[in-house]
Write a structure and sequence with these properties.
464 residues; alpha/beta
C-alpha cells in the first residue's frame, strides 16, 4: 500500500486546489463556494516518480456536529485516522479562527506528523504572510499558492522526508481487472447508500437531503471474488432546476464518470417510477455506448399492488432499452445486491463479447434467410458479409448492396436476431452498414452498329 497524506482544514482554504496540484489532475471539484467538498477523494501524487504517495482530499471542518457539516467532519476524521501524515491547510490571508485551533489540537492528539500549509500566498507577501499563525506553535510551516503552483514542490519534499520508506511504494495504482461501475440517477434515489452498503462502511455521506453528493467519488471494493471501482455521482436534475454553478460542474463530472465507466448502474426510486429526466439521463448512457443495469431501489417499501403497478410502468417507460436488466433492491437493507452485481457481471461480459468474421457472416445469412429484407423502390438490399467492428459496445459491420435503403424496422430485426443468438444482455449492440461500390459504375459499354440499327427500329416502331 502507498503511504497516505490527508489534507484537512476549514472550508474554502484551498484543499481541493492543492489536491489537484499534487495529483496533477482536475479530479477534485473546485469552486469559491465553501463546503463544495464533502466526501473523501483519493488520488496519487507522482511529482517524484520513484516516491509516489496517496493523497486524500477532505471536506472542510466547520466545528458543527449536526447535519451535513457533522457528516462531513466525520469523513475528515476517518481520513485523519488512516493517514500517515496530515497537511493542515489554512488561508494565510486571514487570521486563525478558534476552529483552526480546535482542528490543530485534534491533530496533535493523534501523534502523527503535521505540516502547516499557508495557502493563498502571493509573491509580494511571501515572507510576511502567516505571521499570525506563528502562535499556533507548528514547527513545520510551508508557504504556498496551490492555484499558481508555487511552493507545491517544497511541500512534496517536506512530505517525502517524513514518509516511511516502503518496499512496494512504486506499485502502480492501475488495476486492469478492476471493473469500473458508475452509479447514476436523480438526487435522493439512494446512490450513496448503495455504495456504503456494497463497501461495508460509511465511505461516502448518505443523507435524505437531495444533492448531498457533489463530486464523483471513486471507491474500490471486492465482492464475491470480483474487484470493483464504484463511482458515486451527483444526482442529475432537469436543466430548468439547475441554477448553481457548483451543480452544473457536478453534472459535468457525472457525465465524465459515465464515459469512464465500463458498466453503469442507473438507480430509480420505486415509489416514483421513471420520469422524463430519467429517460434523458438514460439517453446519455446510450450515447456513451455503456453497458447498463437498472436498479429499482426502495422496493421493500411497496405493497403488492404498488409493485405490480411499478413493474408495468417500468416495462412501458423503458421500452427503448429492453435489453437492460432491471433488478429490484433495497440499498438501505441490502436486499437484492447479490443479484445486482451478477447482472453487472453479465452486462460486462456481453459488452466485451468479440465477434468472429466467419460466424458473424453465417448468423447474418441465417437472419436474412429467415426474413429477407423488404424491397424498397422495387429493389431489395443484399447483405453479403459481416465482420466485427470492436467491443464496448460490441459492433458488427455489415457490407452489402443498397444497405442504405434498409428500413429501420429491419435494422432492429437484425439487432434483435444477433442479440438473441449471442445471448447479449445489458449492453447496446451497434450495427454499421457499409454500402458496396458498383464495379460497373464508371464503365461505358459502347453499342455495336447492329445494336444501334435495332434501337432505331424500336424507336420508329414506338412512334407509330
Amino acid at each position: 500500500m502507498l503511504p497516505l497524506v490527508a489534507l484537512v482544514g476549514r472550508p474554502n482554504v484551498g484543499k481541493s486546489t492543492l489536491f489537484n496540484a499534487l495529483t496533477r489532475s482536475r479530479a477534485a471539484l473546485v469552486h469559491d463556494e465553501p463546503g463544495v467538498t464533502r466526501d473523501r477523494h483519493y488520488g496519487v501524487c507522482r511529482r517524484v516518480e520513484d516516491r509516489p504517495f496517496m493523497v486524500v482530499d477532505t471536506g472542510g471542518i466547520s466545528g458543527e456536529d449536526e447535519g451535513l457539516a457533522g457528516l462531513t467532519a466525520q469523513q475528515s476524521g476517518a481520513a485523519i485516522d488512516e493517514a500517515d501524515i496530515v497537511v493542515f491547510v489554512v488561508d494565510a490571508k486571514h487570521a486563525p479562527l478558534p476552529v483552526d485551533e480546535e482542528i490543530l489540537r485534534r491533530l496533535r492528539r493523534t501523534g502523527k506528523p503535521v505540516l502547516l500549509a499557508l495557502n493563498k500566498i502571493d509573491a509580494a507577501d511571501a515572507h510576511e504572510a502567516g505571521a499570525e499563525y506563528a502562535r499556533l506553535g507548528v514547527a513545520d510551516v510551508i508557504r504556498l499558492s496551490a492555484a499558481h503552483q508555487r511552493g507545491v514542490d517544497e511541500l512534496v519534499d517536506e512530505i517525502l522526508e517524513r514518509l516511511p520508506e516502503t518496499a512496494d511504494a512504486a506499485v502502480e495504482e492501475v488495476e486492469p481487472d478492476r471493473l469500473r461501475v458508475a452509479i447514476v440517477g436523480r438526487p435522493n434515489v439512494g446512490k450513496s447508500t448503495l455504495v456504503n452498503r456494497l463497501v461495508g462502511e460509511e465511505r461516502v455521506i448518505a443523507s435524505s437531503v437531495p444533492g448531498t453528493t457533489r463530486d464523483s467519488i471513486h471507491v474500490d471494493t471486492e465482492r464475491d471474488g470480483h474487484k470493483y471501482r464504484l463511482i458515486d455521482t451527483a444526482g442529475i436534475r432537469r436543466k430548468s432546476k439547475v441554477d448553481e454553478a457548483v451543480e452544473k460542474f457536478s453534472i459535468i463530472k457525472t457525465l465524465r464518470a459515465i464515459e469512464e465507466a465500463q458498466v453503469v448502474i442507473f438507480m430509480l426510486d420505486a415509489s416514483e417510477g421513471v420520469t422524463d429526466q430519467d429517460a434523458s439521463v438514460l439517453g446519455q448512457v446510450l450515447d456513451a455506448g455503456r453497458a447498463l443495469v437498472i436498479a429499482v431501489n426502495k422496493w421493500d417499501g411497496l405493497s403488492t399492488y404498488q409493485r405490480e403497478q411499478t413493474r408495468a410502468a417500468l416495462d412501458r417507460r423503458l421500452v427503448f432499452v429492453p435489453w437492460a436488466e432491471s433488478v429490484t433492491i433495497s440499498a438501505a437493507h441490502g436486499s437484492g445486491l447479490r443479484e445486482l452485481l451478477r447482472a453487472v457481471q453479465r452486462a460486462h461480459r456481453s459488452a466485451g463479447f468479440q465477434f468472429t468474421t466467419s460466424d458473424l457472416t453465417r448468423v447474418v445469412e441465417a437472419a436474412v434467410e429467415a426474413h429477407p429484407p423488404p424491397p424498397v423502390g422495387g429493389h431489395a438490399a443484399k447483405l453479403r458479409f459481416a465482420h466485427p467492428g470492436g467491443t464496448h459496445p460490441p459492433t458488427a459491420v455489415i457490407h452489402g448492396g443498397r444497405v442504405n435503403k434498409l428500413p429501420d424496422n429491419y435494422k432492429r430485426y437484425l439487432e434483435n436476431y444477433l442479440r438473441q443468438h449471442y445471448k447479449l444482455v445489458g449492453t447496446p449492440l451497434k450495427l454499421e452498414f457499409r454500402q458496396g461500390e458498383n464495379p460497373y459504375a464508371d464503365k461505358v459499354n459502347p453499342l455495336t452498329e447492329r445494336q444501334v440499327r435495332q434501337r432505331r427500329r424500336l424507336v420508329r416502331h414506338s412512334k407509330r
